Amino acid sequence: MSDQSIGSKYINRELSWLEFNIKVLDEARDNSNPLFERLKFLFITCANLDEFFMVRVAPLYEQVIAGISKTDISGLTPKEQIQKILDKIHDMFSEIYSSYNDLIKNEMQTQGIFILQEHELNAEQKTYIENYYQRNVYPVLTPMVVDQGRPFPLILNKTFNIAILLQDKSDLSDEDPLFATVQVPSVLARLIELPSSDDIHNFVLLEDVIKMNLDTLFTGHNIISTSCYRITRNADLTMDEEGSEDLLLTIENSLKQRKWGAAARLEVESNIEEQLLRILEDEVEVSRDKLFTVNGPVDLTYLIKFYDLKGFDNLKYQPNPTVQNADFVNCDNIFEVISKKDILIHHPFQSFDPIIEFVRQAANDPEVLAIKQTLYRVSGKSPIIEALVQAAENGKQVTVLVELKARFDEQNNIIWAKRLEKAGCHVIYGLVGLKTHCKVLLVVRREENGLKRYVHMGTGNYNDVTAKIYTDLGLFTSNPYMGADASALFNMLSGYSEPTNLYKTAISPLNMREKVLKLIKIEEENAKKGKKAIIIAKMNSLVDKQIIDALYSASSAGVQINLIVRGICCLRPGIPGVSENISVRSIVGRYLEHSRIFYFYSGGAEQMFLSSADWMNRNLDRRVELLFIVENEEAKEKIQNILSLCLKDNVKARVLNTDGTYSKLTRKNEEEIDSQQLFYKLAEKDLRAKNQSKKGYI
């Protein structure tokens, strides 16, 4: 049973997110997943918690310090939220390290993979480590002793360190030992492989290598005790955009603040001595409620390093083939293809290549006059950026909105923005007070009948790397109304023009909220008239109270509502008379569910929309987002199949209970339905069918 009060109609946002992360942890504990994939899920669980502390927990602590006692929609004050969060996370940490020790000590050893402790090393391995340390580690280390002349150093956010108590060998009577700290260098590999036979792979952790050789750093001193530790700091950037003339400079300066925010968590090894712990608590300024002692290595995000080891492909998911969309196979002119019909692509089950090719062909097509695109998160070596640079060098009018406020991608986006500007692109840094999160690509081309607009709109970022692991949908169209809406959006982003007549889209913060509420209301009114009324909505998060209340009202009127919400869901299903017609399920599997799909029965007209926006306050009120209708029958049928399979998934889906917890579905002689795996089969079937159709036509 959840520790949340069912007396509230709403689930607390933070506790709901933790339930999502428990689902990720469940995948690490699922024996049906390959071993290295389980380690990867464990890594994701820990990385998610890092961000959660930096962005969600730390601001709650600040609210408590400021004396804020205002309750959230679930009725909890910041102090009450923190207590419930910490209780749940302490339990989660126990499960994380139980899973870690089980995987490392049992399952990995059965595969011939060992992480050795000092007492397990033989003489040859100790010699190897000593030589490795002298050549590769010792020159990089900087021991820092704290005394009257040397204050406690500033410990950066998420850096990995070793705390040490020292005693001067020349004065063994000294009752006050010295404190020292050594940062474990992030520039060095934390996972060190030792020479071993072909069938055995022995590793040692970098921090253990350093601990074995601490006497080289503190000659003349005895090492009394040591413990690895890590501090998680507040990384929620706050900035005065209104008073800033240069948003680029403001964000660059704000990034520096992230390293030194107030501590929200202190992680230490479980065997830490009390004296060493008290020093850390005093110097870092953390209370005991922020302390996490761990039964294993501090910071398990190192586990992702196993995933890159050579020779262990059998311990990973078998690679799925890259399936091309049949409409774009052997496509010499992508504009001719898009001009014939709207084309929907489902990533990662269908290749991201057509989007890259769309920009590349536009960059080199003499008839293309202008390219306009929004960029929120792009990859480190983005082929789209290169194509945009090429387009500018070829004399095209290139306008790119690079969202500098994309959390934890700010530095990367600053680099790309400068590169694009240098190439001659017109770069926009986003709107003051708003994040631009919509995914739109517009190409203006000169043709026989005048200028024609080609558009791609999507649910996910223009990122060729994440497109292989996130499920998203994108629509190519030359529909003139879609083109007009895209132009209106870019005019809003680059100037002061506010769209007054949108044909096929809705934009937040202008009118998306009103559009969604109106669509929900139509279903409610139809249900009241005794008509069939259905809403199916797939998104990452459902937080907005106004939307939730509208869904409650529709449910009470008899609307059948099926929600597929990957992460946070503040709506509480199954409340008698309120939400008994609402079901909520979450799918956590091999790929990160990221697409936003909204279906409304609409009296039999069946309207389908895709969007960059979740149903959250920030998406509807504080971001520039796009909701667009899908009208092509082939594309609509494809979306209908996607929703249907998600609702039938009985392998990776969990159902949200009224108390805020999730339950796995029980299969009673039912066929296993893993929606993500079936999407690949559907993509291959679609390609074969269209290829056969083309052959028959020829």
CATH architecture of the largest domain, please? 2-Layer Sandwich
Main pleated-sheet profile: 10 strands, mixed
The CATH superfamily of the largest domain bears the name Endonuclease Chain A
Q: Predict the CATH topology of the largest domain.
A: Endonuclease, Chain A
Distance between the termini: 62 Å
Strand content: 15-25%
Number of strands: 27
- Roughly how much helix do the residues carry, as a percent range? 25-40%
Protein structure class: alpha/beta
Q: What is the count of distinct domains? A: 4
Shape: globular
> Runs with pLDDT <50, length 5+?
1-5, 239-245, 254-259
How many H/I helices?
18
The CATH class of the largest domain: Alpha Beta
- Overall mean pLDDT: 90
Tell me the radius of gyration. 28 Å
Describe the protein in words.
This protein is of the alpha/beta class. It has 4 domains: 109 residues, Polyphosphate kinase N-terminal domain (Methane Monooxygenase Hydroxylase, Chain G, domain 1, Up-down Bundle), CATH 1.20.58.310; 157 residues, 2-Layer Sandwich (polyphosphate kinase like), CATH 3.30.1840.10; 178 residues, Endonuclease, Chain A; 191 residues, Endonuclease Chain A (Endonuclease, Chain A), CATH 3.30.870.10. 38% of the residues lie in helices and 22% in strands. The protein contains 18 helices and 27 strands. The strands form 4 sheets. Strands 14, 18, 19, 20, 21, 23, 24, 25, 26 and 27 form a 10-stranded mixed β-sheet that branches. The chain is globular and about 90 Å long. 41% of the residues are buried. The N terminus is likely disordered.
